[in-house]
Design a protein that fits this description.
InterPro entries: CHIT_BIND_RR_consensus, Cuticle_Struct_Prot, Insect_cuticle
Pfam family, one: Chitin_bind_4
Distance between the termini: 52 Å
Shape: flat
Oligomer: single chain
Helix content: 10-25%
GO molecular function: structural constituent of chitin-based larval cuticle
Keywords: Cuticle, Signal
Number of helices: 1
Strand content: over 45%
Amino acid sequence: MKLLFALIVCVIGVCLAAPLDDSKNAQILRYENDNVGLGNYQFAYETSDGVSRQEQAELKNVGTENEALVVRGTIRWFAPDGQEYVLNYIADENGFQPEGSFLPKV
């Protein structure tokens, strides 16, 4: 019985000592936000697991029937194998237009 108890305690100890997935415990390193609710906005953030995003929007043709919000942004993240991915995008009256790339590990 003592051997079984010791084995269970060891298994629990190993589980608790295992490294945690960084993305589940990521901390916000930087956060900026400029949004007064009148059309234009911008924000940016960066987290400790290597994710970063920035986005800005501009209302164009204000007050006309062609009024449209134009959003531009970039998001970067790392895959589990360490590969960095970058997605640039524009969203406007022509729809969502993404452009992606990956940066080889150095």
